[in-house]
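Researcher: Here's a chain I'd like modeled. Treat it as a single chain, no partners, no ligands.
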Amino acid sequence: MKKFIVFHASAVDANSVGSADDGVNLDLAAFDLNDLQTMTGTEDTVELTFNETGMFNKHFGIGDAGGEGYENSLVILTVAEGKEADVIKDIAALANASQVHGVAVPVFDAVNSKYPINNVTAIAIRRSTTSRVIAAA
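Model: Modeled as a single isolated chain. Structure tokens:
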């Protein structure tokens, strides 16, 4: 059974889109926590990378000599200064818990400023449909 995590970055309206390289108008998304591949912290942000969440077949154009591929989906959380490590640890705990505060699906809701963990203040979502050339190193 899939375990989803929901990100509500801004109000869903007529301008909302399902994918955007720059994240503009990508207001609401849910990703399978099993697809969470990595978390990185930079000053005042934590980036969550989700693998194989694009609308295209994951094997499109990938070969030993390189080809075209699609970037993984990315959620960027703005966090309180100096709390990057705490946020990463708390998200790791969310990913491994069956429930958080009695809720089975964690929702990061920037619209209503409600988050299942502390120290998160904003959300940006990126989901690419633009292919990139991948060259063999």
